[in-house]
Amino acid sequence: MSGRFENLTLDSIDVPVTKLAGIVAAVWKQGKFPLLLLSGKMGSGKTTFVSKLVKALLDQLKPGLDKSKLFVNSPTYTLMNEYPFSEIQNQLGDPLEIFHFDLYRIGSSEEIPDLGFEEYWNGKGISLIEWWEKAEPEFKDRKFRIKINLEEADEDTRNLQIEFLGEEWRRSDLPIESFLKSEKIL
User: Fold this and answer.
1) Sheet holding 126-130: strands in order across?
2) Residues ≥6 apart with Cβ < 8 Å to 144
3) CA 106, CA 85: separation in Å to the nearest integer?
4) Which of 56, 102, 110, 186 matches a 20 to 30 Å C-alpha distance to 79?
């Protein structure tokens, strides 16, 4: 299932981000661990998208939470940033942990076992992975994957492609199809 949203400004991208956050939050609350795989050229807005998504997730999971001190930045040099929120728990009692990965600096998927990232992917929290293609074989069989592609339409706007991968997303309790259809024209 996929949808394309075109000519989004930084303000109008909030609409699909908020709806996506609602779907991701619902799955995480049930004790599942979604993987969001972000693609796009350097400077296309992947980290900005992640920042908006993290804030939207918090709005979904704990409305009114003070986010004024939350700073989401690119983990290009650290490879991973972790955003823990122990005050938010899913139905299994797991605290919310959001993991933001940037695989730009790795050479190949062969480096992943040495880095230990696979223990996070589908193992806990919500993982947001920029430059995931560098380790594509690691994601092939994982559950609850969402591919997100950002491309520059022009200097001020972006096109956004969102694809829900796998049968586990075909559930009547998640408004995925209506989300993908309703937001095509913003």
Assistant:
1) 2-8, 157-165, 145-154, 35-39, 126-130, 95-102, 80-89
2) 27, 32, 33, 34, 35, 122, 166, 168, 169
3) 28
4) 56
Average pLDDT rounded to a whole number, residues 101-112: 84
Q: Across the strands, what pairs with 80?
A: 101
What is the model's pTM? 0.89
pLDDT band at residue 115 under the 50/70/90 scheme: confident
pLDDT reading at 104 higher than 60: yes
Q: What φ, ψ does residue 11 adopt, rounded to 5°?
A: -80, -45
Hey, what are 106's tokens? 């790795």
Both tokens assigned to 159: 């096109």
- CA distance readout (Å), 46 to 53, 74, 88: 10, 9, 25
Tell me the residue ranges of DSSP E strands in the chain. Answer: 2-8, 35-39, 80-89, 95-102, 126-130, 145-154, 157-165
Q: pLDDT at residue 24 above 80?
A: yes
Q: Which helix (H) or strand (E) holds 49?
A: helix 46-61
pLDDT band at 116 (very low <50, low <70, confident <90, very high): confident
